[in-house]
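Please check this chain.
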Amino acid sequence: MTTGVEQTVAIIVGAGPAGLSTAASLHKLSIPYILLEREDCIASLFNKKAFDRFHLHLPKRFCQLAHMPFPSNLPTFVPRAELLKYYDDYACRFEIKPKFGNLVKSAKYDEDRKIWKVETKIVADGDGGGFRCYEARYLVVATGENCEPFIPEVDGLSEFKGEVIHSTRYKSGKKYENKNVLVVGAGNSGMEVAHDLSEYGAKTSIVVRSPIHIISKCKLMYGDITKYGMQRPKEGPFLIKVRTNKYPVIDMGVFENIKSGKIQVLPALKSINSGGDEVVFENGKCYQFHTIIFATGFKTSTLLWLQGNDCYFNKDGTSKAMFPNNWKGENGFYCAGLAGTGLIGAAMDAQKIADDIFNLIST
C-alpha cells in the first residue's frame, strides 16, 4: 500500500557524508528538502560497517563535511568513535532529520510536471512495510561510492568449509586469535583489517594481486618492497589516483607486521579446491584457512532505481561528467560525492548544488 505524496523543493538520497553535507548546505540557504536513508542511522558505512579500530585513511582536513571543520583537538587521522560523534554533532547543528528506513525503489523525472517522483519501500522495524511517494523539483543522489558490498566470483567459493565474510561485517580480530585468516584485497581497508588481525594474534595472510604504493603517515614512500612479495607501480601515487581513483595504502602499522612475518603476502586467489578445505593461489600453492575476509570494495545500487540513469552515470556508478562539472545533470538532477574526489570532493559538490538550487528558485 502506498501512502500520500509528500512534496518538497529537493530530495536527497543517502544520509552518508555527501548527503549530510548537502542537507546542511540547503539548510543554510533555508531551502526545504527531504533526506531519504534506507538504514536506521546516518553515515551507516562508518556506523555499522566499519571495524572497531578503524581510522580515516586521510588527514582530517581532507575529510570534513561542508561548513564545519573537525575539532582541533582530534588527531590527524580520526578514529571511528570520534568520527561518529562528529557526524552526530553535525546533524544536530544543522537540524538534519533524515527519514530513515526508506529504501528507494524508483526515481523518475516527470517531463510534463517538471518534477522528480521518488518511490520508497519502508524497511524500518515496526513500520509495517508499505511504500511512500515523494516529489520535488530537484533530486540529489548522494548514495556514495561505497554502497553495496562486493565479493567477486571465485571458483569453488560456495564449497569452502570455513567462514566467508565481507570486510563490512568484520568488527575485531579478537575472536580470530590463533586462527588462519586470509584477507583478499590490499587497499586501505584490507591492509587495516590484516593489521588488526595480526595484532590480535591471528595467523594472517593477505592477497596482494596488483602493484601498490605504501606510504607512511608522513607521506614517505617505502623503497624496495619486492622482497616482501609486493610490487610498486611504475606510475606515482598521484597519477594513479587521477587515472584509476585508487588511493595509495596509508601505513597504520601493517608494513612492519609484513616485514616481521606476522602477515604473509600471497599472490592472486585462484580457486577453492574440490574438498572445500584449501585455497589455491595463482602460483600453484595451497593453504588452509578458517576464515576468508573479502575487502574487495563495493558496487552501486543507484543504477537499479534511477530511471534513465545512462544519461548520468557510467556502469560503475560514477558520474559521466568529469570534475569539476560532475555534480550537475539535466532537469534538476544532481549528484554529490560520486566523482572519485573523496569526502572533500563530496563537501564541495554539496555546496555547489545548494548554491545552484538557490539561484534557480530565486530567479
Remarks:
- The chain is about 25% helix and 25% strand.
- Residues 19 and 142 are 5 Å apart (CA to CA).
- The radius of gyration is 22 Å.
- The chain has a mean pLDDT of 91.
